[in-house]
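SEQUENCE-TO-STRUCTURE ENTRY
===========================
What this section holds: a protein sequence and its matching fold, both as plain text.
Tokens: labelled as protein backbone structure tokens, with as many entries as the chain has residues.
Question of interest: how does this chain fold, as expressed in backbone structure tokens?
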Amino acid sequence: GPGQAEMYAGLQELGVANGEDLKETLTNCTEPLKAIEQFQTENGVLLPSLQYALPFLDLHGTPRLEFHQSVFDELREKLLERVSAIALEGKVEERYKKLEDLLEKSFSLVKMPSIQPVVMCVMKHLPKVPEKKLKLVMADKDLYKACAVEVKRQIWQDNQALFGDEVSPLLKQYILEKENILFSNDISFLQNFFSPSPKTRRQGEVVQKLTQMIGKNVKLYDMVLQFLRTLFLRTRNVHYCTLRAELLMSLHDLEISEICTVDPCHKFTWCLDACIREKFVDNKRARELQGFLDGVKKGQEQVLGDLSMILCDPFAINTLALSTIRHLQDLVGQDTLPRESPDLLLLLRMLSLGQGAWDMIDSQVFKEPKMEAELITRFLPLLMSFVVDDHTFTVDQKLPSEEKGPIPYPSTIPEAFTKFLQENRIACEIGLYYILHITKQRNKNAFLRLLPALVETFSDLAFSDIFLHLLTGNLTLLSDEFALEEFCTSLFDGFFLTACSRKENVHRHVLRLLLHLHHKVAPAKLESLQKALEPTKQSGEAVKELYNQLGEKLELRKPSPAEVTEAPSMELPLPTVPTPASR
């Protein structure tokens, strides 16, 4: 067929006979058998010893094709080994000259499946494949596919669009993987989005594939960073910032100095990575990070855009925010004001740099955001006063109460707190982490006191996926409170349901939580929640799917009519035990 002709097209250029030549010989001859024998002699393997061996193989019924194929495979293996050896021996110019000559001779056979691996192997070992050959490979889908990544890199570095087509599905997959973790049905305060260590995360499929595609090629690395910046600007999705840091650290793990030494963020990212691993910024590393920020020279301010993107990675923000809460607690114990703590001020500086990443990259104005004095002089002392309220309440509970009745927990929130959460991004971020902190401590009083402040927050941060993912995990520690009407009303009616109808993601998180804790909720409350959470026509597949799962779980909980009529004969009421399926 036409495929065959094309496949063997290169042989004639090399003076090697092919099927067409045999056809021609047979068409123009008087004794076909003699002609075939002659063709075999001229084009067979030229080894005198084979003259007798071949008829012997014929007697054993081994087809000539099989014999030639095995000789050929053996030779090809030897040739591949030889090519790899040439690539390592002798003077650099000489070895590449040899390979280039070999490529010149063999390239015309690149379409022959049997020869293709050899041609590909030669190209793989050439640091610069001739432009003409690269163009031919690029123009042919199958050849391009068969190419080694070393050759593809040479094609990609001058074809950003083609490289973009290869990278794009990987970036989509990465974002999807992150979202799947945030919406996972497994809810736990032990295992959450931030649990995997940086080293573990860098072993992920997408990071590994991108690392492999980039190799040591700075140009490709820069292109990927450009894609990430552009996508971050277009979508505001912070997971692209995580990938920016993971990619750099993956190249760091492999000691690719060609790239690490030219990325001005390398040392900063490396230091921050160690903090993320410990989920805490200790004093020594704080000094180091501060040194990098203070060391940004005049005329090099653009590096702030990159540093801000590294700091905008949710794993970095999580570490900075957790460290801030820990520092505030220490300050309460030491009777020190926030403005007197340089470590705390540095954490705030990095938080605002990270939170300002999008604006900086968007405006291309590279300077550190100004820290609002009120954040330090008013908001943080407010948080510290909450910590003090908790201490006081706990101590009061333990004191013998004579004539005074029990002291109630303070239930009002200072208006300033609510206002800060609405108007100041950094205050909001720290405030939310403080609420996660008290939830994790099972401090129901403090949680219910501050919860109303979450209904309206800066850019709806309290309804963001990362916060809701962490909150739902921590709420499992308060699972016994879900039996109480007051608690459920505050949490569901007062917080979650205020946003469910306008925010699909909130609807999903509430359903996740109920799937996990429905057996703890009072039946009457559960029924009203089931009504309130019913999907609308606009609801997406994920919400409908979760709602149906919840419905099935609740069906399983209802006692069957038979059980109800027999109930009086039993001594004990039926406990509502979660069925195994409900976990």
